[in-house]
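Hallway conversation turned thread

IA: we were arguing at lunch whether anyone had actually written out YbjN domain-containing protein end to end. Turns out nobody had. So, for the record, here is the sequence (336 residues) and right after it the structure tokens. Reply here if something looks off.
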Amino acid sequence: MMAADLPEAELLDEPTTADLGAKVTEAWRQFARTLAATVPELPVGAHLDLTLDPTASGTGSAVYGVSVERHEEGISALAVSNANLPEGYRLDRAAVAAMVALGWSPPGVLSGSGESFGLEGDVNKLATVITRTLRDVYGAPHPAFLVYAARGEDDEALPINQLALARHESTMEGSLPPIEAQGLDLADKVRLVVATLTKTDPSELRVDGDGDIGIRAGSAMVFVRVRDNPPLIDVFSPVLTEIEPSEKLFAKLSELTNRMPIGRLYCTSGTVWASVPVFGRDFQPTHLSLAIQVMTGLADELDDRLHGEFGGKRFFGEGDKPDAPPNAEERIGQYL
């Protein structure tokens, strides 16, 4: 697979992507309906917290969330603003404008909102605005990536009905459990994870003619491929192409592979590949998230390091040319 094989335009009309879009849309509608039905049942003074799971989204210490509170006089909501987000994860101007356009008042405008965006209104309006905020502004690709919890005036935990496919905080054990109850196949689940990490909509992922999802990482490209039999996700990158195999190269790849906590490096048909497999059976989104984060960092670093030593061409290395080929006696067969 070469750079020219990846289409510049996203395949938005790709059938499986379109099916996923419909499923995701319906999941968000179900979430909004259950949210609107649940909030009025909260006791006065209680609040319901909804957050994007940072362990699934790779946002680290940045917690994007909304808190809904039931008062004697009605219902209000607070949404996290840049004042509570670390640098690198703050909302840009377009996102702030989107919050205001959805109906949120800027921080400090509504009484008691402090450093958060504030919102008041009837429960149906709040449910719609909150759903769109979590999805469109904070970037949750699916309700399954949301965590919720209800607490009373004394901050005691309150029992609450299931909010569609969102997860109660009691299910949190440091990793996202398998997404099995959603009626999604493995490819759909993979797209949701990739969309979360790349902060994009699942329908806007870059998918090539082989069905591989492409993620640019500096001068490298990382692909995510789903295999059915056996169920497996391959996270891989063509680190260098048009490279001359040599004993020195194979020794270097073997050394680097032995130092990698997961995955391997190998050379075949003049291309150096990096690959990290993820099991598809009992799928764990956090395992795929980790593999993608490892591979994007690894590929972008290794293509520069190996290119400087062995030549070849990087995926996005314009003007790259192979170094002088090694001596004939150094050449050996493919590294399998």
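OS: looked through it. Residues 1-18, 174-178, 322-336 have pLDDT under 50 and may be disordered.
IA: good, adding that to the notes. The longest helix spans residues 285-310.
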